[in-house]
Write a structure and sequence with these properties.
Oligomer: single chain
Strand order of the largest sheet: 4-1-5-9-6-10
Number of domains: 2
Order of helices and strands: EEEHEHHEHEEEEHEH
Number of strands: 10
Radius of gyration: 19 Å
CATH architecture of the largest domain: Alpha-Beta Complex
CATH superfamily of the largest domain: Spore Coat Polysaccharide Biosynthesis Protein SpsA, Chain A
CATH topology of the largest domain: Spore Coat Polysaccharide Biosynthesis Protein SpsA, Chain A
Structural class: alpha/beta
Distance between the termini: 28 Å
Shape: globular
Helix content: 25-40%
Strand content: 15-25%
Length: 238
């Protein structure tokens, strides 16, 4: 793995040991190989990273990651592996630890292993845009389908339906909707200083890499796992 630019790039793959909805999710076999392997293979194929490290609290996941060729500098402390732990302190902890060892990245890319449809060009494009725009961060997103547009969302008030957005009643045609987007979890690319000085994965100026729906999937449930199997099988038979 080699980064051709002068800016050092760190890839971080977070893989916590406890998963309630899909037990042992990060190392569970998906079409014959651990879920984690899809992210490792994609990251390697992108060719952008100077270092690719695994952040985990699990010795079992650490062993699988090491077998896949990942750096595993340490096990994540328990207080950073709770269900409610946000991602930012996990990433900050890794960057701090590497800097204490004498290596400082300029760009950090967060790759969650729950996105097995990720493509190398998604990573390459996110990093390219970050450098080109000199924004704080680039995040992959998908467009929210019109039928789920937040402007048309409804809520219950004393058992009666009402528009969640006061503009909702005014919007009577699809053409009146302003496009809206949701983070899809495929790639988060940001400058080291966005993370360590602004204490954010996004900063103030974060911009989108818009992905088509057919190139993205996040595994949170067993139903998502079944969908991933089906879509990967389809991709492999093309």
């Amino acid at each position: 793995m080699a980064n051709a630019s002068s800016e050092s790039i760190l890839g971080i793959i977070p893989a916590r040991g406890h998963s309630k909805a899909v037990p042992r999710k990060n190392i569970r076999p998906l079409l014959g190989k651990p879920l984690l392997a899809y992210t490792v293979e994609c990251a390697r194929a992108s060719g952008v990273f100077d270092r690719l490290v695994l952040s985990t609290d699990s010795g079992e996941i650490a062993a699988v990651g090491a077998d896949l060729g990942l750096e595993v500098p340490f096990l994540r402390p328990p207080d950073l592996a709770r269900d409610e732990t946000p991602m930012r302190p996990v990433v900050e902890h890794m960057v701090n630890a590497l800097e204490e060892q004498g290596w400082k990245p300029e760009i950090v890319v967060l790759l969650q292993p729950t996105s097995p449809l990720r493509l190398p060009r998604h990573i390459q494009e996110a990093v390219r845009l970050l450098k080109e725009w000199r924004c704080d961060a680039v995040v992959t997103v998908v467009q929210i389908p019109d039928r789920f547009a937040p402007q048309k969302a409804l809520k219950l008030v004393d058992g009666r339906l009402d528009f969640f957005d006061t503009e909702g009643q005014r919007i009577t045609r699809r053409q009146m909707l302003e496009p809206t987007y949701a983070r899809d979890g495929t790639v988060y690319a940001f400058w080291r200083d966005t993370l360590m000085e602004k204490h954010s994965l996004y900063g103030d100026d974060w911009r989108p890499l818009i992905l088509p729906l057919h190139e993205t999937l996040t595994i949170d449930t067993l139903a998502d796992w079944a969908e991933a199997e089906a879509r990967l099988k389809e991709i492999q038979t093309r």
